[in-house]
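G., before I forget:
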Amino acid sequence: MDDFERDLSRLMRDTQQHTPYEPEHRQRLHAGIRSRRRSRLLWKAGGSAVAVAGLSVGLALLPSMLTRAQPADHRPQPTTSPTTSPDGTPTTAPPAPSTTPTEQPETTLPATMTGGVTPSGPTSEPAPDPTPTATASESRSGTTPPATPPPSPTRTTAPPSPVDSEEPSASVYPE
Amino acid sequence: MEQVRADGFDEFAAARWSALLHVARLLTGGDRQRAEDLVQEALVKLWFAWPKVAEQAPEAYVRTVLVRLAARSARRRWWGERPVEQLPDRADPGDMSSAVAERSRLEAALALLSPKQRAAVVLRYYEDLPESQVAQALGCPVGTARSHASRGVARLRQILSDAVRPVG
């Protein structure tokens, strides 16, 4: 620290004049604190309101998004109906094609519905009635005796393979 | 609880008001009104941080806030000044003592520095802080703070020597 720096330091300290902390300073300071506190509260309230609004909008949109996804999950059901009713009439055939072949893999569900016989096969009685539908389940379970009754429907549901069987069936029905 | 907080805060403000005002005045290059505003704003910020810093280093906290507020305020172009019909009273030139004249000269010289240089010089030569704390208050590396201080001093040396230099 050279002479100039020492002088500079001394000059800065010597020029300090005492300024008392007067009541008006205190009042002004506390008024500033109150003002700042108020603005902080407003900011917090505004932030909370925005957060709540965002959450409510999100919650309102969420169900609609879920319902959009649901139809895809329920589509397989139509495919089951044709298989269940086939014993009744050929009219059931049209629905099957409508259910696109892409959804065929899920037709396993229908087997359980109508031919619930097949999976639980040995004990379930419903086996005889849903005989026609058993074709698909036959290929899967294979061992169940109830499969024997469906010989007649087998001609329609020729495809043996379990999973792929549905696709061809769908293509067959349109014809 | 709130009362205890207010009491401690008021004690601190009363004890340090004069020194803080002087620092602020140096940091603003002698602008008393702006200096008061800066001290007020720094103390308001300190109030909200008081529970955290009261037991540690409120002085360092408020000094750092003051330096940053001064640097920020120096970037503003408009200070909210409004024209008035009547000018406020000013001290007559004849009333100026040598101390006041010296202070005015110093403040005028400081006003010619950049905000960072001014802050570095004030913290280094008035507050007598080590370079590391100067850097911390400025929010920059130690080398940068040292550079600000040395350039500021060099500029002050030039300004003050020019002012003292005899005419002719």
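Residues 103-172 of chain A form one domain. The radius of gyration of chain A is 40 Å.

More on Monday.
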